[in-house]
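Notebook B, p. 112. Complex prediction, attempt 2.
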Amino acid sequence: MTVDTEPFDEMRDPAGAVRSAYAGYAGWYDEQDQKWLQRKHQEAEGVFRRTGITFNVYGEDAAEERLIPFDMVPRIVSAAEWRKLSRGIEQRVRALNAFIHDLYHRQEIIRAGRVPERLFRDNEAWLSDMVGFTPPGGVYTHIVGIDLVRTGPNDFFVLEDNARTPSGVSYMLENRETMMAMFPELFTRVAVEAVSDYPMRLARSLAACAPDKTQGKPRVAVLTPGIYNSAYYEHAFLADQMGAELVESADLRVIGGRVAMRTTGGYEPIDVLYRRVDDEYLDPLSFNPDSMLGVPGIMDVYRSGGITIANAPGTGIADDKAIYSFMPDIVEFYTGEKPLLPNVETWRCADPESLKYVLDNLADLVVKEVHGSGGYGMLVGPAASRRELADFRRKLEARPDNYIAQPTLALSTCPVFGRKGLTPRHVDLRPYVLVSPDRVEITPGGLTRVALKKGSLVVNSSQGGGTKDTWVLKD
Amino acid sequence: MLGRTANGLFWMFRYLERAENTARLLDAGFRMALTRDIVSAEEEWRSVIHAAGQNQAYRAKHGTFTGIQVWNHILRDKDNQGSVLEMMRSVRTNARMVRNAISGELWTAVNESWMELDKALSRPVTQGTVGEVIALVRRAGTLAHGAMVGSMLRDSGYHFARAGTLVERADNTARILDMKYYLLLPSLSYVGTAMDTGQWDQILRSISGDRAYRWLNGGQSDPRGIVSFLVSDGRFPRSLAYSHTMLRDNLDALARIHGQDMESSALSGASAKMLAELTIEQIFDQGLHEFLTGFTRANAEIARAIADDYRFLR
């Protein structure tokens, strides 16, 4: 499939009629004065700036703070659609957890020949420290972001699993706050599921995974690399909303077999650490010795049951793009069911036949680095110049195992508010999932990312994408 | 609360207070210069630079003292770490760092003030805009304090923030008093005699005490009265006595919260007691300069003890 086909419009059917999920919104929109809406549109940016909802861009200026553009037209999902998605997401997340546990224990899926051993042997995200160890509550990936794309009325695909440190949930919450502040009357006309209890659920879910050594109420802290990290706003926001401490490396040390934070009254142990630093920086004694972001000795404490780390170290093994291509098999292996949410068709360039196909059809495909993220190191064939295609061809030939390729999907579009009213732009959707020992919770909504350039399929904020509020309708 | 967070709150409010006092000082210089040619009142601007403690940094860049040079140096020079712009940047950076320890109102007040100031100071400040910029800085302080008083939980974070304000304010008031004394007195034998009332008036203005003082003294100003007012009048919120009495109260509250006797609490208690019992005669007997030097040293010692008591740094 290529972008030649007319993309699915979330708001209107091909005849131009408003789809049922958008009926309430469209009715409201048609009654609004365009000039007033234009003013609101400008107001929204001011709200984000004043409240400092920013992300940092690494560049010449140590860390320039930027806004992710916000679009005020919501992306709307019907209750029935959401139920279907939720079932598929839950199935996938359970499989992900079972898969990670298996990889670090008996490796039955490999013995059964369903995934090749080299996938984890050659994987940088593999942590031998985790072999034979089970995290408290048996949970590996406490917070998951599943990226979905849509191509038709009933065609949702998983584009990516974010099982290590999915970000952006603060935007999901702030987008809703902003919408409710700007258009309160809209929410009395359309019944939308609330997302605001996410931080409370996150706190509860994390506390439910507290280690055995916890005494009294579990103490939860968010570990941030600091104020210059691109997602610092989100780290501070989540700590604030959960009533947890926001800690940095310099606040922590290992004392008496526990990880403790330096408070004004002395060192106090932490039970659950929601870390927003990558594995390799987590413990300079175990991993990168130069890291200033982690806690020396935390892995020993972890392995002796003194702290819960969320998400568990080594979880990244599951959200590698090479693993992604095996997800349908993985889901089936651990759940005994067919996957409810399909993958996007994927060619593994490590396989010579696939590589040949990819090289022959490069101009029609999206090629991604296996370990890349955030829209870096990827090629969007149809949008690439002849020179970019030639460059990528050389990269592929030099290191085929470093790449996967997918068809250029006609991502669905959702209207954005432009100078001349509503105009369609491509979107994706990242719902957020919380995993605790006894349940999987999916917040009704998620982060809708939108490509703000006409025709563009790249929605990443680092590449100029924006965000929208996502509504899941009540029945 | 984390030691780092307490440190961030303390310094956020120290920088805010320092920026605000610097703006007040500039305001005083500006009014002083109004009586002459506003731009070229060299002596007046020289004394502003002295009182701001920026003599060395200023002389390294400029050979003359003109209003435009002085206020641009103090307000927005990027090379000047003590410029109002850089101090307000520190206020905001600290506020971001301690964001989950301050209320949303306080954060928004600081962030909005920063955005306004950053914009206002992106271009050179002219004679036409200097008054406006000074007003912006003072309003930034007022907004932040107002937001804090109205919205922050009275837990340890609040007391660390107040302690930062009061330590800095005590230091600023003492330093301004000392600078003027040092600069303007022709000789020590003049202590307590009639002096240029206009210059003493500037001390009052730069500490925003001119109206209060006139109200209390029926418009009469004399140096002994002014010194007494700025040192020991517990009703004036920028006097040394007020600053250290309130500082003691906040530090006592912190010690109670932590359930321990603390050095910082003891030191501030002793200082508040000393100031309450001090007479103007005693100050002039030991010499105003000597007294103020002793005071700023004791003030710095309290700040050091706070950092030690509450584990600001590892």
